[in-house]
Specification:
Elements (H helix, E strand, L loop, with lengths): L2 E4 L3 H14 L4 E4 L3 H9 L3 E2 L3 H7 L2 E4 L6 H6 L8 E4 L6 H8 L4 E6 L9 E7 L5 H11 L3 E5 L5 H9 L1 H18 L4 H22 L3 H8 L5 H11 L2 H19 L2
Parallel strand pairs: 1-2, 1-4, 2-3, 4-5, 5-6, 7-8
Antiparallel strand pairs: 6-7
Length: 261
């Protein structure tokens, strides 16, 4: 499958690098109006289209990775993309918004990725407008899983997914930073505490992912009766730790809905 990437900003670059591992750079072409971005594409070994028409003609799958404010202008030019699959990574731009510009006859896929795509460990939501064959769906999903985990969900949940997985890395970074600072307070250097926290986080996540079980079950396993861990858990519960996280995601989801207008 030949892939065209329209917009070579942070997300376009991240997808370009991870997708090239699956399809090869010879099957990727990039277009961006910014000459600096085009130069970055060239330096990374990608073919660069001089205009959008060339990219459309050279691609089977067209990934739209421009800023939402530029969506209407770019999508309007994709009306001429006959028999192509249009895949959007634009936040807040719905499938109906896209179809309004490109035409109701187009095959449209929408994904919502997070920052982890940059290292091939992204978390992505996916949905489409129902015009793709199952073979096409399977092919796109196979390619995208090169960049991370993929979850097929209803588009109505995309705002919540944005809050949970899109903004989630920032909340995890806050958690990591907080634990690292706690380590500093106990006498570690920040860098040493940070490494300890990151390794602890990675190991904990791997336990649940590979061995199964719920977080609450693992908490019980770690907590000895009358021990140190349960004392810390008690403090978190008293401060409403889980309620704070739930409220955080709720507020973030509300903001995502407001930004769509």
């Amino acid at each position: 499958m030949r892939i065209g990437i329209v917009g070579f900003g942070n997300m376009g670059q991240a997808f370009g690098l991870c997708l090239s591992k699956k399809v090869g750079k010879e099957n990727l072409v990039v277009y961006d109006i910014d000459p600096t971005k085009r130069q970055i594409a060239v330096e990374n070994g990608f073919a660069v289209a001089n205009d959008l028409k060339f990219l459309i003609d050279a691609s089977d799958l067209i990934m739209v990775a421009v800023k939402p404010k530029d969506a209407k202008e770019v999508l309007g030019k994709l009306r001429e993309a006959k028999d192509k699959i249009i895949l959007s990574v634009m936040a807040g731009v719905s499938i109906s918004d896209i179809q309004r510009e490109v035409g109701e006859d187009k095959k449209v896929v929408r994904i919502m990725p997070n920052l982890g795509v940059a290292v091939g460990s992204g978390v992505m939501a996916i949905t489409d407008n129902g015009k793709l064959t199952q073979e096409e769906r399977n092919g796109i999903e196979e390619i995208l899983t090169t960049c991370g985990s993929l979850y097929r969900i209803e588009e109505s949940l995309f705002d919540s997914f944005t809050a949970l997985a899109g903004s989630g890395p920032a909340f995890v970074f806050e958690f990591i930073d907080g634990l690292a600072l706690a380590g500093v307070r106990e006498g570690f250097s920040y860098q040493q505490a940070l490494k300890i926290v990151i390794d602890t986080l990675l190991g904990s996540a791997k336990l649940i992912k590979e061995l199964g079980g719920s977080p609450s079950e693992w908490i019980v396993r770690v907590s000895s009766p009358g021990g140190t861990t349960i004392e810390g858990i008690k403090f978190l519960e008293e401060k409403g730790f889980k309620g704070i996280l739930m409220g955080c995601v709720e507020k973030t989801t509300e903001k995502a809905k407001k930004l769509k207008g």
